[in-house]
Amino acid sequence: MKRIASVSEMQQTSLEERRRGRRIGLVPTLGALHEGHLSLVRLARERVDVVVVSVFVNPLQFGPREDFTCYPRNLDRDGALCDNAGVDVLFHPDAAEMYVPGHCVYVEEMHLSTRLCGSVRPGHFRGVTTVVAQLFNIVLPHVAVFGQKDAQQAQIVRQMVRDLHFPLEIAVAPTVREPDGLAMSSRNARLTPDSRRRATCLWTSLQWVRGQVRTGQTDAAEMKRAMAERLRREGGATVDYVEIVDAETWAVVDAITRPVLVVVAAQIGGVRLIDNLLIEPGDASPDCALPPSGR
Ligand code: PAF
């Protein structure tokens, strides 16, 4: 596996691979890799010849009171995981490489970015789209792979690719879960044993909504209210939001009569967690990647 820290070396490497007719896949990450990231790598591997993983803790997407400084960082471990997973290039620029002195151009999606995580974390998605646009211009991927856990991010990046005509495909891989259903996230490492136990309430409350829909309930407002109440009661959670949106358009729905995404963000023991579940009325199939022991 090649390790590259310089923007120009990464760009030259990608241009050379493209000249040789090889397809490039990008898995953008903040590092602190786990099985969820490795599932994105496997998806990329199936689609392309050269898999590039970027590790960059992007300061622009963290607010002033967020966890940028204590975000877990371990490049040696990330490198070893990537090497074992068959990654071809680990791209790990530092902030000065990505944001050149005088940097003042930003990329901003103006609609979905203001809602849900965007309303709780102003500027977050502007930081994401700006750095992802840079990564696309540096790594020149044919395919970029994102995780369904960050569903709002994936939707916003899709919109950016569409509106700015980036010549690449966005692939979204299913959420990978711990055996008890907790969505894998680098932030899980910051949960105390007690918070970790309580954090399963995100998954159990999402499943509760799915159970309600299967019994014929359609009242979205009532389900959101009851789900938030469960999160507070069972998980001691501070709920940032619980919302039910159309799975295609992300418009808020009143009645669950078509495929919807239930999205949730909550803080447990001071750690902010997000999760979501696609619910298709009348469909009993699971839509997430739980390890075998968790099924
Ligand atoms: O989802 C993440 O890990 C980050 O938001 C991303 C896409 C790598 C951009 O910094």
Describe this protein's structure.
The protein has helices at residues 7-19, 35-47, 75-84, 95-98, 117-120, 124-139, 151-163, 193-198, 201-214, 220-235, and strands at 2-4, 24-29, 50-55, 89-91, 143-147, 169-173, 238-246, 260-268, 271-279. With 295 residues, the protein is of the alpha/beta class. Strands 1-4-3-2-5-6 form a 6-stranded parallel sheet, with helices on both faces. It has a 3-stranded antiparallel sheet with strand order 7-8-9. Helix 6 (124-139) packs across helix 7 (151-163) and helix 9 (201-214) packs antiparallel against helix 10 (220-235). The chain is globular and about 55 Å long. The chain binds pantoate. Pantoate is lined by residues 28-30, 58, 61, 128, 131-132, 150, 153. Pantoate (PAF) binds at residues 28-30, 58, 61, 128, 131-132, 150, 153.
What is bound: which ligands? pantoate
Strand content: 15-25%
Nearest-integer average pLDDT:
95
Name the shape in a single word: globular
Number of helices: 10
Give the N-terminus to C-terminus distance in angstroms: 34 Å
Order of helices and strands: EHEHEHEHHHEHEHHHEEE
Strand order of the largest sheet: 1-4-3-2-5-6
